[in-house]
Write a structure and sequence with these properties.
The two termini are 24 Å apart. The protein has 212 residues and is α+β, with helices and mostly antiparallel strands. Helix 1 crosses helix 2, helix 1 crosses helix 4 and helix 5 crosses helix 8.
């Protein structure tokens, strides 16, 4: 498998956590590795049994991802980290637009990747963390055809209402999703500013939507 496919697979597996969401996701006593294992198993089962999803019904997958991703991902933190220093300089309205456009970009990326996932299994490795840690790394391997694929998740423990573990970054074969986008976004911000980045994301989303 080439790196482009691995990137799509990485995105799909982050979406897998979104698609597997249930009311139990917010349980404060669920371990981070237990969350990743359970959600991964659930979504892979859905991919095998749901005829529409299995057939690659992109619009249905988009609806599922869009409806369930937020409970499982700290999307504001992910967007802020991807934008980098420019996030603090952005107005509240610009931050909202960045978050909305980045979400749309990722959801459509995930949906397209999910349509291509089949015959994979996910093995969660032993968690190396103390019981009171609030920020952990969950390491997994995606096993199927070819060599195993390294897929790691960064999660944080959130307090208050909806307390539980939330994903804020993803690593495939040594490349972290947020850092990859940060490099791309920094070039756009340096050239055209925050509004330029928003315009670029918006144009990309409109192009992706028209291709569907």
């Amino acid at each position: 498998m080439n790196r482009r496919f691995l990137g799509r697979l990485a995105a799909s597996l982050l979406a897998a956590c979104a698609l597997g969401a249930t009311g139990l996701v917010h349980a404060a006593d669920e371990t981070p590795d237990g969350l990743v294992q359970r959600l991964s198993n659930e979504v892979l089962e859905s991919l095998r049994t749901d005829k529409s999803v299995k057939a690659g019904d992109i619009e249905k997958i988009i609806v599922l991802v869009d409806r369930t991703i937020m409970p499982n991902v700290n999307f504001r933190r992910m967007t802020a980290a991807a934008v980098g220093p420019g996030w603090r300089q952005a107005s509240p309205e610009q931050q909202k637009r960045l978050q909305d456009e980045f979400k749309t970009l990722l959801v459509r990326t995930y949906a397209g990747a999910l349509a291509q996932v089949s015959d994979q299994n996910i093995v969660v490795k032993p968690l190396r963390a103390a019981a009171d840690d609030k920020d952990v790394l969950v390491r997994t391997e995606v096993r199927g055809r070819g060599d195993p694929i390294q897929l790691d998740y960064r999660l944080e423990k959130t307090p208050g209402q909806g307390a539980g573990w939330k994903i804020y970054n993803l690593n495939v074969l040594g490349a972290w999703l947020v850092e990859t986008y940060r490099s791309q976004f920094a070039q756009e911000i340096n050239a055209r500013g925050i509004d330029g980045l928003i315009d670029t994301l918006s144009a990309r989303n409109k192009s992706n939507a028209s291709k569907r």
